# Entry
Amino acid sequence: MLITFVKIGPCHLKPQLTRLLAGLLGPGLMLMILLMLIFQSPALAQPAPASSSAVAATASGSAEATVYEQRSRHNPDGIGKFYLGREIAQVMGHQGAAWLERPSRETEEQPNAAIAALELQPTDVVADLGAGTGYFSLRISRLLPAGRVYAVDVQPEMIELLTFLQQEVGIENILPVLGSETDPHLPPETLDLALMVDAYHEFAYPYEMMQGVVQALKPGGRVVLLEYRGENPFILIKGLHKMTQRQVRKEMQAVGLVWRETKHLLPQQHLLVFQKPE
Ligand SMILES: C[S@@+](CC[C@H](N)C(=O)[O-])C[C@H]1O[C@@H](n2cnc3c(N)ncnc32)[C@H](O)[C@@H]1O
# Structure
């Protein structure tokens, strides 16, 4: 009998039945049963699911179904918006620009090894998306005597900083671009390579951004992501600022990019290579 009632759940007990049971079983036993019913009820025994919605405001401000889910319970380092199961990280503010230029980065991340692995051609047209202070743009531009780098960022302060640093060293083949959260503002079918270093995980609209990137790539053009390895708990970077290979591949596949290889040459990051189909 008890099992039957447990399955029914407390909300379905009719008042007459409750009175009958109280008479038969006595108030003490009845109270015990009711308590058991309450704690067996899936809705009450487990924490309430975080309020979530797959309907989010789009960039244009209209509410329509999107690929995103908004949850009220989330990691404090994130924006509460989830894409393909991953919470999007908060944008690293321009106030942290000095951290991007820290001298220890040479040993911690080995950027020169990462750049060598890109196998750039002197004529290549590259976009550095989420360029920040232009740490990678500046180093790459020197390898492209007949090519150029579009250094894209959403923070005007970062664009100012990278323009300043570029002018200081007299480099002319970097084109700073102020992008929006949904659009990298790049010309169509121009890029041989789109590079994202420690940036993609904080794109607020990764799907729209990557659609823009795919449009800007030449057929056969490559996308390379460097992300701290999410699989390794001993890499001391906040969880949302790391990504697993599996997640990166899922998200690139969602915009039609084809995984080519993952290079395991960096101390803490994955280097994943994708290609736009010919
Ligand atoms: C952690 S920093 C990395 C900067 C640079 N890639 C580096 O490795 O030094 C991430 C940068 O991505 C930029 N960003 C975030 N969302 C963006 C978006 N949707 N489009 C372009 N840049 C974005 C931020 O403004 C920030 O400068």
